[in-house]
Amino acid sequence: MMVVMTGLMAALVCVGSALRITLPVNVGTTSFHLGNIMCALSGILLGPVGGGLASGLGSAIYDMTNPLYISEAWITFLTKGAYGLVAGLIAWSGHREGKRYPFNLAATVAGAVTYAALYLFKGFAWDGLLLGGLQSGPAAAALVTKLPATTFNAVVAIVCAPLLAAAIQKARHAAGRSLA
After folding, report:
1. How many CA atoms lie within 13 A of 48 on its CB side?
2. Residue 34 gets which letter from DSSP?
3. pTM
4. b/e per residue, 159-168, with b = 16+ CB within 10 A?
5. In which domain, by residue range, is 119 found?
6. Counted domains in the chain
7. Where exactly are the transmembrane stretches of this chain (predicted)?
8. Which pLDDT score, from 0 to 100, does residue 178 have?
């Protein structure tokens, strides 16, 4: 059952990542999407291992469908995998199995902050220094354009993922079924 749920959540992460609005900015583009909600939800529902795999795989698969992102799919696997992993570690700490709203909220915040830090570091090191050939000052300045969408994605995930998890857990409990 865990393999099936991990695959299902990976598919939802991929589709959520595809549902995006891309905005042009001074140094390229930025976007906001629903994939982060699914990454946090994966960690909450599946725990650290299943959540990390679903988040990483679903996001990397999305990247492999787009020529603009395909070369970074391995980075996305790691950074988005960390999102689900961290969310799962907190949501499932103390044998809670993602069933306590306050811990799910904290899990989503921690996952979002972890991902945002990794994403911004990737933007600085990979996009700015390595590929862009920028010095550290301009590479850091370029991150300013990523902050609005990164913050928006994080806030939407923090609001939505714990609520969705609560609804799914309630339905699961009513049906007498387990997700993991």
Report:
1. 11
2. S
3. 0.90
4. ebbbebbbee
5. 2-20+32-175
6. 1
7. 34-62, 74-95, 101-121, 151-168
8. 66
